[in-house]
Structure formats: C-alpha cells, structure tokens
Amino acid sequence: MKRLRRILPWALASILLFILITNLWVIAATSDGVYEKDNIPSNDVALVLGTSKQTNDGRPNRFFVERMSAAADLYDNKKIRHLLVSGDNSSKYYNEPRDMLKALGDLSVPAGDISLDFAGFRTLDSVVRSREVFGQNSITIVTQKFHCYRSLFIARKFGIDAVAYAADNGSRVGIILALREILARSFAVVDLYIFQRQPKFLGEKIKLEIR
C-alpha cells in the first residue's frame, strides 16, 4: 500500500503530462489549416462530420445546426462544389447522413451535389473513408473549431490534403464537452501512432459525381 501511494502521484502526473503534450502537438500541428468565414480556400469536396440533430432532451442540437449552415454557406459561396456527409447510421431511427441530407435540402443545397457516407461511426472513420472509399485526396472538413484540430490531425496522418472550416456561431463550449475533446485528442494520438487504428468498414470504392 505504501508503495502504491508513492507511485500513484507520479503515475497521475505522467498521465496529465501526456495529455498536455499530445493536445499541444495536435493543435500546433493543425492550427494553420483551421479557417473561419471568408478566408478559406476553395476545394471540390467538403466532408461534413455527423452529429445528432437533437440533444438528449429533444431540443435542436446547435452543433448540427451550425454544421449544416456552414456547409450550405460554403456551397453557396462556391468554396466547394460537392458535400460528403458522413455519420452514424446505427438504426432506422437514428441516421445522421439522412438527417444532414434533409437539413441541407431545406437550406437549398441540391441533392445531386450531396453524397452520403453511412459508415462514419467516428471521426477517424469519416476522414479516412473520404479518401479510401470516396477517392478524395483533398477535402474541406466542416465541424466545430474545437473538433477541427483533431480532424485535421487524422487527415494529415493519412496523407490527406485537408483544411477545416470552423462552424461556430461564437457560443461557448461546455466544460464537459471541452474536457471530452481534450481526452479525445490524446486518444487520437494513441490510436494513430500506437494502435494504428483503421476504419471499422471500408468496402468498395464509390465515385463522387462532382458537377
């Protein structure tokens, strides 16, 4: 027990140091590729990362609303030509890509310029599948700013030429979500450099009809 008491503080300190270093690495390595508003470079395809359209209490999820609005803005301003919406499709009652398709349609984005990826179960899956399944070596990732860094870090590790569009309206992120993302960045480093994770599903290649 005495030995455990001696080791525990050092173990906790090591974990905290690892979290700090990996977060600084992820942000420093990708901050040059995070854009806001009108200064983002043009690309053929935007990868719109999925999230639930509603919160647990049934209210509209502001992250979903912000991403759809940002994606439509990029399309309307001719910063991109095609949208690849990628998310979870875990049941017939929960289908992020279908929800995004409908929301973008309500924002006047033509369905012919939207493709759906039903196997975007997590960020790594969505990003890697954009190249390995949908053949895109250069993409614009659409998500919230706190999520942009990790998304870009994954993309660059897999050799994808990516930039990210911060789909934020200026509202603050809750502390629980902020802490969750801090841990997610550290886990991403472990996944990429230690476990060398790959998407859950790949499958046959799909050609995007970019008009």
Class derived from helix and strand content: alpha/beta
Strand content is 5-15%
Please describe the biggest sheet, giving its number of strands, its sense, and whether it closes into a barrel: 6 strands, parallel
Which stretches are poorly predicted, pLDDT < 50 over at least 5 residues? none
Spell out the CATH superfamily: HUPs
Taken from the alpha-carbon principal axes, the silhouette is globular
Arithmetic mean of pLDDT: 94
Strand order of the largest sheet: 1-6-5-2-3-4
Identify the quaternary structure here: single chain
The appropriate CATH architecture is 3-Layer(aba) Sandwich
- Overall number of strands: 6
Structurally, the number of domains stands at 1
Description:
This protein has one domain (22-195): HUPs (Rossmann fold, 3-Layer(aba) Sandwich), CATH 3.40.50.620. The chain has helices spanning 2-30, 62-76, 96-106, 123-132, 145-157, 175-195; strands at 34-35, 45-49, 82-86, 114-117, 138-143, 161-166. The mean pLDDT is 94. It has 6 helices and 6 strands. The radius of gyration is 18 Å and the shape is globular. 36% of the residues are buried. β5 (138-143), α5 (145-157) and β6 form a beta-alpha-beta unit. By secondary structure, it is an alpha/beta fold.
